[in-house]
Amino acid sequence: TIPITGSDALYAYMPQSERVFTRYDIDRNGTFYKSEKEMIDSGILPVGNFSTGDQVTIQAKELILPYSAENAVFRYENRSALSRYYEILSQEPVVLEKISSSHLRGTYTVQKENRALFFSIPYEKDWQIWIDGKKAEPFEVFGSLTAVETPPGAHTVEMKYIPIGLIPGMLISLISWAAVIVWRRKSAPISG
Predict the structure, then answer these.
(1) What angle do CA 110, 113, 114 make, to 5 degrees?
(2) Within 13 Å, how many C-alpha atoms sit on residue 183's CB side?
(3) Is residue 77 helix, strand or coil?
């Protein structure tokens, strides 16, 4: 049970190595408030907006693996801090020319040294990133999002989502199809 001390949106961060449950229920002052069917992959749960003095209880349901919430962290959304960060991040935006679920391409300009290009895209190793045509190494920020180091100046960026097993899988499929064709030709009766 969490005693509510603020009126801003409340979030819970529940660190975990993998998905441990598929639903959580939230009660407010002993009365059902809402249910979520899926936990967000990053472990961040949007608990909701409450009034100061409310008592909120979160219950994990349909556990897949044993889980302890002893390391859970609860934080209120700080709108003024978000506005400040938004202003900072908006000073050097990426202008996207191509947008799809697996491919982004755009341009941007960075004025200062020691900057990172930040994407509000969940970090996954399968995202491949190129800056000015050169492969860049993405890294995880804020526990779940993607960034890449970038030098000052005007640049192009391209991101493609290429699952690690895609190329070997395609190669194995191609070899298998070739083997089937060869086998069928050799095993076909010779007419004549």
Answers:
(1) 105
(2) 6
(3) coil
Of the candidates 152, 121, 154, the one whose C-alpha atom is nearest the C-alpha of residue 139 is 121
Pairing of strands 73-76, 10-13: antiparallel
Question: Is the pTM of the predicted complex or chain greater than 0.85?
Answer: no
Q: What is the DSSP string of 148-177?
A: EEE-SEEEEEEEEE--TTHHHHHHHHHHHH
Contact 116, 157 (CB under 8 A): no
83: buried, middle or exposed (CB in 10 Å: 19+, 13-18, 0-12)?
exposed
pLDDT digits (tens, 9 = 90+) for 125-166: 899 999 999 999 999 988 788 999 999 999 999 999 988 877
Residue 142 C-beta-side C-alpha neighbours within 13 Å = 13
Which amino acid, one-letter code, is at 90?
S
